[in-house]
Design brief:
Layout: H1 2-20, E1 26-32, E2 50-54, E3 63-68, H2 77-84, E4 97-100, E5 118-122, H3 147-160, E6 168-174, H4 176-183, H5 185-191, E7 197-203, H6 218-230, H7 238-241, H8 252-255, E8 263-268, H9 272-279, H10 291-295, H11 302-320, E9 329-333, H12 344-347, E10 354-355, E11 358-359, H13 360-368, E12 375-377
Parallel strand pairs: 3-5, 3-6, 6-7, 7-8, 8-9, 9-12
Antiparallel strand pairs: 1-2, 1-4, 2-5, 10-11
Bound molecules: 2-acetamido-2-deoxy-beta-D-glucopyranose (2 copies).
One 2-acetamido-2-deoxy-beta-D-glucopyranose binds next to helix 2.
């Protein structure tokens, strides 16, 4: 009797213990940047921008990783209105805590390069990868297109919190946040002290200019609407907009050609978001023939795989345009994935993706610390058995 009660208790204790071991990361509370409101640096709905900060320690105390959240874009008033009162458009709707794992982990074994840095996850809330700046606010919609101002206000707030003493700093992000890191890379450097060593990491942010399966330039038209709606042109890299139409400078293959600051491109060559939204968006596939393939790469027909192999070649061509650029690091794996730095399972675990005998965590760490400018592009699907090919519910 006493014995079984004891067993029950210890079983319960084990569950509690397992739950409290932060194997998937720690929870970090939100900080609202309320003083940004006076500068007009606000989310779509006019609320203050926000981030989550976990302070550095020991040797990492003066190192800063500023990582931007993703979440697509809104390209016109209709789609921006639909986003305005959600967590992607308003800090009133954001979770108060986020889990930090992968590149944001505070545990040495899970994140050897950056675990003791000051690690920040900036919440996405403008719908244009933090490039917009429209002074006028329509009184009917109350939409604020101010992402460019938010970017600066966030960096200024972090400088005041100690980043002004930074020895090392990384601007990173995933998806639309990965694009934020690429597009704002030189600007980030210009806002930091002159002696800070700055590099940028775009994870799943290398969206390519490619035709969809119906032969239309769907993504090009979509990005042109994003740039027009948010008046993004003046916040895109001037080294690009001085050479071509601003719309085209929303594509990293153009925007990153003349950056000054070293850039690491981390991307799955069969990026799941790009396959779903650039190659085979709903409008280009009215009968839903791509539906099963987009949810699970193993369900693609031979013809669909061939089309994806062609997309891979276009992706590699786009990457090759950066040959003489500051893009000194890259990890382009042959996986069906989207965002690989934030999740422990892809960033660093005993079964994480490997390319040329290297995990993503090691490749990025070696590149940042100057041990090795890791640049590798994988062979074609299904050549890499270490991939974590995602399966999506819809
Ligand atoms: C806004 O964009 C969406 C998505 O591209 C499109 O379906 C819709 O027709 C557009 N609305 C207007 C008013 O242009
Ligand atoms: C792969 O990396 C491991 C660990 O760094 C090393 O021990 C091993 O020799 C490497 N193998 C090859 C083929 O380079």
């Amino acid at each position: 009797m006493g014995d079984s009660k004891h067993r029950c208790l210890s079983f319960f204790t084990v569950i509690l213990l397992v739950q409290s071991i932060p194997s998937n990361g720690i929870n970090v509370g939100i900080t609202y940047v309320r003083n940004a409101v006076a500068k007009g640096a606000v989310c779509l709905d006019g609320s203050p921008p926000a981030y989550h900060l976990d302070k550095g320690s020991g040797a990492g105390i003066n190192n800063w990783l500023v990582h931007f959240e993703g979440g697509g874009w809104c390209n016109n008033v209709t789609t921006c209105l639909a986003r305005r009162d959600t967590r992607l458009g308003s800090s009133k709707h954001m979770a108060m805590e986020l889990v930090f794992s992968g590149i944001l982990s505070n545990i040495r074994n899970f994140n050897p390069g950056f675990y003791n840095w000051n690690r920040i996850k900036v919440r996405y809330c403008d719908g244009a990868s933090f490039t917009g700046d429209v002074e006028t606010v329509n009184p009917a919609t109350k939409l604020h297109f101010r992402g460019g101002r938010v970017f600066i206000a966030i960096v200024e707030d972090l400088l005041a919190k100690g980043m002004k003493h930074a020895q090392n700093a990384i601007l990173s992000g995933c998806s639309a946040g990965g694009l934020t890191a690429i597009l704002n890379c030189d600007k980030f450097h210009s806002l930091l002290p002159r002696n800070t060593k700055v590099k940028c990491l775009g994870d799943a942010g290398f969206f390519i200019k490619a035709k969809d399966v119906s032969g239309n330039q769907h993504i090009e038209a979509f990005y042109a609407e994003v740039v027009a709606t948010h008046a993004s042109a003046k916040n895109l890299p001037a080294s690009c907009t001085s050479r071509m139409k601003p719309d085209l400078c929303f594509f990293p293959q153009n925007a990153a050609q003349h950056l000054q600051i070293p850039l690491f491109i981390l991307n799955a060559v069969y990026d799941a978001w790009q396959i779903k939204n650039i190659l085979a968006p709903g409008v280009a596939d009215p009968h839903g023939k791509w539906h099963n393939c987009k949810t699970d790469i193993r369900k693609c027909s031979r013809n669909q795989i061939n089309i994806m192999q062609d997309f891979r070649l276009q992706f590699i061509n786009a990457i090759n345009r950066l040959e003489r650029s500051s893009a000194s690091g890259m990890f382009i794996d042959a996986c069906y994935a989207h965002c690989q730095s934030e999740m422990q399972e892809t960033w660093l675990r005993d079964d994480s993706p490997i390319l040329v005998n290297t995990t993503i965590s090691k490749a990025v760490g070696d590149w940042f610390y100057g041990r090795n400018d890791y640049r590798a592009i994988d062979c074609a699907y299904p050549c890499n058995p270490t991939c974590h090919n995602r399966i999506y519910k819809n």
